[in-house]
Structures are given as structure tokens and as C-alpha cells.
């Protein structure tokens, strides 16, 4: 229901945009200078973000270097909690956050629909592919994609090839009891389930595949960072999916890990960057929103967080892509947001029930 | 020095009545002891006088001013009443001098007055060399004296004592009784003293208020309380006693009471009529014994059941007409158990109480 | 004499109608403050259990679904059962270890004597959460330091040892939790054991009992109420813990109610009404615990104060058990303090988690970051300030509330004291939501002060409970004699009661300060970008996958706590280990 209403609204936006290309916002050098000046008067940005704290701090540092005089305060709050908090604050008239980096597309969409997100068209709007934006309300600055992360001391190259060949590689008897999975509800936790339970793949994967994975007796961790840390340490040989960026961070620190991404690979916008409709520092917020979605921001992001930008025309500049073992995604699997919203909870409950049978 | 008047004092805790309407008038300089078993309301009465408890009914006046009425009360710190507590309540974090001068300093008295009073209070209790000691270094008796010095140093209108000697050992307790009495007489402070120890009460009191179940049982000088108990409770609580149930046979110049068939005792005249049921009461030391029949009324034969040497007296249990009697002989005289002897009680020693 | 005249000149007018004294006014102010600070969030919390849920939060429509689900569904009841069973096991073990050590220190001739106090209390300086990281590092099946070192040693001797311990198991959960709750058992019983009249035991000996029989037949029965009271507190506290059973529990396949509360209130789709409803279940456990505990404490006090005339019991000679007894206490200290701290320190110097200790694995980067990032410095300041302030406020307010409850004995004073104790086991996550709602529309929201109010609300129960037993030990005649000496009740409180209570006050201050510094679950919900604190920062870094940085923050946090102990000790000039044991 709500989604349809939103789509209608988005449709209207799109047609308006199509009708008046010339009137669309394009930021010239002069405009940017004006925005910066206004932003500097505000002097501050409060950014609620759900991504790991260090890379985001790194991004902030780069932004501050380019735009001195604006202090960016970071507060890491994970997706649903950030949504809750932002909603409560907004409804109570406590306008604190300027910028949001929120995980989960449906949550972001809901905020946009309630009018809590500012409509702000970034200059690079047209270079953001359609699945990675919600009207002009929110943009996914980077993609999230699923990978099987393994410890190179524990998994041989031959075994890595088996894992890379297909999602079903994990079912090879030699992997029994050697890997970990994560029992948690989150976007990245759900995306592959969303794919495996897709009508298209019902025959190939579906519920039987999930049961077969559980039958491999994996160790179950309560959260993704813990699973990654334990794989790095060598407690288990690999984790049956994380998202790539979190692994890149560890890899850059020198951890003995690599990863493979079987085909098709779920790749979607999991984190959504938006300006609050009630931002106390509206100009500064817009300035930073622009920068985050700019080419420069994209390169900074790829350097800091290790996830690839959605911006077309920007090269994947991450050092890891130079590695011979690192293969680009061959075929992307796109999310069906309607089905996501409808089935998220029941699918996750099913998967957790199946997980419980593995012990 | 002030008079203390207690009128119809009532104190209730919820449904429980601790003090049930007490009247007491303590004259200036008088030393009155509230005596009674635990739970009789004596300590509650004392705490009401101190102002540590609010009263539920009646009133308390000190020096002619009402200090306690239901719902209205002068707080304890403004009553100018000194108190010595059962636990001494010496403040452990202070020295002897700090304890004694605490109240004086609160009154903002000049330094020389404070030090003069400290000195005289400590001299009074014989602790003049202990001023700078920490109280934890003192013995129980010394702590007791500090408590006393602290109360006296304030030069209160009234001094209250709440079982002040009960935590001391027997010897010290006995000595302190006399000291307390002498001290009070020297200072002449109106004093009210609570104890459950009747001997202690006898020593210190001008008058004893015997209390039972929240009410006054008898008020009088120690001798009167002992010699003329006005109730069975008084007789039993103060000193050892023989209580024999009987029936008045004849009255007139003397009252004759039948105790058991074939055994009657004569007492001095009283307002009894033949047929009245009475208690005949006498003290163990009023029994005389002899191998031969004793001259005078109220002689009777008896058999010795037991006899013990207690030092100053000999304790004796006799049996006559199927009734056991307690006697105390002074100077001590020991009888062989089972011996048939003669005993006698003087009619003047008998107290008759209507049953 | 001057004053005497003054009073005499003022006849019946000197009477004050219903007594309004200085401390009553102060108490009233604090009572209103504490009641508002604790009960309003509590009511908000309970209220939020009665709403319908949407995938994004709560809908404005009322519903009993969550309550019915939590109270009747087999799923939630099994979570509750798991939490209670775990709390029961942990309580039993922690009590057994704590009491045994308390007995050894208080009543025997164990070498080291009171110096052992500090060894046993030390684990309090480690937050359980940091301790968990340490034990994951130490005790993982294949990569734990312990297994790695033992395995390497065995390999040198020529055999394959295999994993010796595995923290990722039910036993692992019990182990970590028991280690961290043992100091509580110790603290709450050691003083009772010290105060017990030794003549009771001696009488048993005179009747022909061996020392062991005397202990089992006399000491243990007499101390049972005190043991039970300590056990109840540990039970309530351990039933609330969610991090340890949650994070480790996933691998062994069990879920406790507090972990489910965490999941329901943080993970999409949110089930906030369920979380709040489950919070009310925890509340009942607390209420029951508090009621039983009060009754028992009363009994216990009666027992303990009977003797307690200060004559120290003659230490029991351990004989040939002297060395093993000391070894036992030191082994505890080794497992609960030394091992985790060393592990944390080593771990915090690594670039990433590993057991191959090569030189290029190590870095001081995390410590450099810790002190160079502005946010961390601010968090350090805030943590310190909040710890000191909440300690001070709880000390004053908690003591006064207990004092009024016990000395004035009015119904209102009892109610205030009861309300003050309620938040003790409402899970911080749920309580945090209530706190958030309470302050959302006030200017305090978004500042660091909201955390101060949260800590006061969360930790005032400790202050009330601890000060209560402290005041119980003060003969009220000490105050009354001050009144008779002319002191107003407030003066008596200030000049007599408070100074005598000093060790207890110091204990409360110190304890609340430690708890505030370690508090995580409510802080996570309430901390703002303007007021970061260390515990939340540790959590953020750990959730971001940087366990090494989290460990570095944990090490610094522990160092701060130790430093604070030293400072408070100097400031109050009391031996805190002893003071804590008195509380």
C-alpha cells in the first residue's frame, strides 16, 4: 500500500524531472561556493550513521580537509535503532541529526514517505543507477555485495575454487564442520536468503538448500563482526557469507583472508544516505551530501571503507581489485523490494529455525 | 532544675498501646526511678519525656511549660534535658573531649566556658586525664562515665537515665549505683531513671514508680514499696516473697486468715469481713525458725525441704500443711533436710490483699 | 546559661506542630527527584508493552498481543526458563566460590589475610563485556591463547593435546559469568562472617564438635540468611546479563530472555512491545527478589548483631590446608583478573586477531588513535565526570532515603525506598527506552546529562541497599544522644550519622562510580554525539569489527577504574576494600 503510494509519488517526480531537464539542479562552481559559505556559517553537521565507525571517521576527516570550518559529529547507531531514534526525535521536535546513513531500504523509504527526509537532488544524481536511489530523498553511496570470506591459512586454493564455483560449493562434504554462519536479522543477513528463496531459484536452491547448509554443521555466531574476527583468527575456516566491505577493512590491515563471490551475487544498496527534512544545519548537510555522492567522495569512500561506489564512470579504485585472486562480480542479483518488505520477517524466521537444526 | 509533670500520658504504636495513661509528678531535684519488667512502658515514658517520641495523649510539662501534647511537641534538642543511654551512645569518631563538648559548642558558648565545663564534668566522673583519648580506647565503665559527663556538662534541667548500668559487669554496676546517687545529690538535678533491676532502683531512688503493662502499679519510696506492696504484682516484682491464698475467718482487733485446713495466720487489723478471699504476703526474712515452739502468735511446725548457705543469709525451703514457704535466715543458720522444726511469722509482717 | 533563659522565655510557642525538620525537607526534595527519575521511565517502559507493533516500531494503537505472547507463549517462556536456569547455576557457583573465599579471608589463618581482599574484588574493575572479549581471545576452541600455548607446549613434548578449553559452550558462559559475579558474593558475605560472634562456634567446639562440624552445624546455619540475601542479589543481577549468554550462546543454541530483549529492541524487524513486555517479566523477578531479600536481611541482621561486640574471632588454623587455600584464592585472581587483563593487553596491541605471534602483528596504533581522536578524549572526560557525579548523587540520595525509611518509619518513606530499588534488574535496554521517552521533550535530551539521570536511576538501588545495611549497624541512640545534646536532627545526621557511615558512603560512591563507568545497555540508547562515553565507544568499535580497539578502550577503562579507587581512597582516607566489604 504504502509502497505503491510512494511509487506514484516517485513517478510524479520522475516525470517532472523528464519534463524539465533544464530546470533540474546542477551545481556550478559558484553555487558550491555559496553553499559552502552558508555551511560555514552553520559550522556543524551531526551525522547519524550505521556503518563501521573508523572508515566513516576517515571520510569525515577528508571532508573536513576539503571544507575547513565545519565540524562533523559522528554518532554510530545501527539501522533499526537509528530509524527509531530519528523518528522519535523528529516527532518530539528534537531536531538533532542533519545527515543519516541508514541501513535497510524499506526503513529509508518509510522515512521519505513520512516527509522526514529532505528532497535534495545531488549534482551527480544522474550518475547514480536507479536501484541505488529513492527519488531525490536518499542515495546509496556504495553497493553492498555478498561474499564467502575465508582464512588463507585454512582453505587451500583448490578449496577456494570449489567455494567460488557455485553457492552450492559449500555443501561439499570436505567443508562439514569447518565453517561458520551468522544467526541474526539484518539486510546483509537476509539478501542471500532473499535470493535463494526467489521463485526463479526455487528449484536450484530454495528451502532444501538452506537445510543442506545447516546439515553441514556450521558453527553459529551471533553477529557478523564476531564471525569475521574468528575467521581472521582461524577459529573456523570460512564464513558462509558476509558483505565484502567489512572483509576489505580487515584485509587492508593485513589479516590472512580472501573471499569469493559465487554467481549470481546479491548486490544492492544497503546503506542509504539522506538529508533530514528538519536538519538544524541544512546547508552544511547538503554540502556534505553532495560531497559524499561526488566523484571525490566516491574515491574517498572506496579508499576508506573498501566498498565500491555506485557512481557510474568512477573506476573501482580499491587496492584489493589489483589482487589476482579478486574477481569482479560476474552477474548481479537485484533485490525485489516488494517481496523483501513482505517476506523479510517470515523468511528470516524460517532460516533461523533451520539454523537451529544444525546443532 | 525543674519539676516534671506527666498527665494522663498515652503512647500508642499503631494498635499497640505502650503507655496507657500515666500520671506522675516529679519534684525539683527529686530522683525518681521507673521500674518494671521489659515491655511495661517505662522506656517509652522516658523517651516521651526526652522528646524522642511524640505522645498520643495527655501531656508532659517541664518547669511549668508544656513540652509534649498530641501533635505538638518541643523537639528534643530544645528541651534542655540530658540523657544517658543504655548503650552509652558515645560517638566512636570523636575523642572524649569532643564527645563532652559537642553540645556546648552547638550552643556557641565561649571557649573558656566550654573548657571549664569540660574540666568540671570530667572531674566529676574521674576522667580528667582522658580528655584526648579516643573513645574506642576506653573500657565499658569509662565509656559510661563519658556518657554521664556529656549529659551533665550541658547543665540540663532534667537528667534522664535509660538503664545506664545494664551493660556493665556486676561489680562495677554495684559501685556505679552509689556513685550515680551521690552525683545526683551533689548536683541536685531532677532525675528520672529507668531500670528493670529492683536493687538498683532501691539504691538510687527517692521514689520508685513501679510500672506494669503501660500503667502505674504503685508509686512510693523504696521502703514503702517493699514493706507495703499494694498488689500481688508489686509484691512479686520487688524482692522475694511468699504469697499464700486464704479466706478470712474472723476480723476485729486482728484478722484471722485460714490458709489450709487446720492452719490459720493472724494479721493486723484490716478492712476485711469474714469469708473474704485474700492473699497473705510476707517476705522470706520475716520467717523465724527454732527447734522448739516459738512464743507469740503465728507459730507453726514445718519440715525442712532444703537449706543453702548464701553467705550473708541462708536460704531455706519449708513445707507445712502441704504448702511450700521460702525463708531467709540472717545470720545464716543451716538446717538439715527433712528435719522437723518450728517456724513463726510476726503478724505485723503480713500484708493482706483482696483477691 | 544564655540559651536556657532564651528557651524559658519561650513557653508553648516553642512547639513545632507536625515535625518538619531539615532533613525531611532535603529528603522530600530528593525523594521527589528520585521517584520522578526512576518511576517515570519505568512507567513509560511498562506502557510501551501495550501497543501494536509495526515492522518499523510501535503503532499508536493499543494491543495486548505482546503481553500475551511474552507471558504465555512457549517460546518466550523457554527464554525465561533458560535465563533463570543460567542465573541459578551462576549464582550457585559464584556463591560457593565467594563464600569459600570470604570464609578463608575472614575466619582462617590464610596467608596474606586482608591483602587478599583486593585480589578478590579486582574483577569489579573489568567490565563483564570487556572480560568477555578477553575470554573469547583466551578460550576459543582452536585459537584461544590458552589452548594455543598449552598445545605448543605439548607439541614440544611430543604429543597432540587438542583443545583443552572451549569458551564457546554452555560451560564457557557459566565460567565467564561466575568469575565476574564471585566478587559480589564475597563482598556481601565477608563482613557478616567477620562480625559473627565466635563464641557460638566455640560453644559448639566445647560440645565436642570438630572445627569442620562447628562450621557446618553452627556457622553455616547462622549465616544462611546472609548467604541467601547475597544469592538473591546475584541471581537478579545475573538474570539481567545479556551480552555474555547472547554472544556465546548462539553457538550452543540457546537464547535467554534478556538476549531476546536485546534482539527485539535492536534488530529489524523491531519488536519493542515484546521487549518491554519481557522487561516487565524481569521487573517481577526483581520485585520478588527485593521483597524476599528484605525479609531475609532483617532476619540476618538480627542474627549478626546479637554477638558482634567486636571481639574478633580467633582464626581457624588451616594446618596443611593453608597452602592449597591460598593457591585457590590466587588461582581465582589469576583467572578472573590477571589472565584476562594480560590477554586484553596483548590483544589490544595486535593489528588483527591471531595466534601466530609474529613481530609484524603488533602495533600501538590503537592506543595512539585512542588518545588522538577527539571523540575518544571527550568520551574519557565524560566517563570520568559521569562516574564521579552519579557516585556522589547516589551516595547522598540513597543514604538519605534509607535513613528516612529506617529512622522515621513512615509509610511514605518506605514507599520511596521501595520505588528506588525497583530499577535494579529492569534490563538497561528496555529501561533506556523508557528513559529516552521521559527526556525526549526536555532540553536535557541530546546532552550528556541524560546519561547522568539514567545512571542515577539505574544505580540508586545499590546505594539504597548498601546504605540500609550500613545504617542498620549504627545504634540509633548515637543520634538520639546528639539530639539530647542540643543538635537538630539535620545536625545529628551531618555531624554524627554521616561521619560514622563514612566507610559505607565511600563504598557506595565507589561502587556506583564503577557501575556507571561500565554501564552499556542504557548508554547505547541515550548517548548523543555531543556526549560520547567510553563504554558505548567500546561497543561501537566492537560492533564495527575492531575488537583490538575495543580491547584497548577496555584496558584504559580498567586503568581509570583502578586510578579512581586510589584517588577515592586518598580523598576519603578509608580503605575501600574494607569499606566495600562492609557494605
Automatic annotation (TrEMBL), chain A:
Keywords: Signal. Residues 1-18 form the signal peptide. It comes from the Bacteria. The keyword Signal applies. Coiled coil: none annotated. Pfam families: SBP_bac_11. This is Extracellular solute-binding protein. It comes from Alsobacter ponti.
From TrEMBL, chain C:
It holds the Pfam family BPD_transp_1. The lineage of its organism: Bacteria, Pseudomonadati, Pseudomonadota, Alphaproteobacteria, Hyphomicrobiales. Belongs to the binding-protein-dependent transport system permease family. The keyword Cell inner membrane applies. It comes from Alsobacter ponti. PROSITE patterns: ABC_TM1. Residues 80-293, 380-568 form the ABC transmembrane type-1 domain. It comes from the Bacteria. Gene3D superfamilies: MetI-like (1.10.3720.10). This is Iron ABC transporter permease. It is a multi-pass membrane protein.
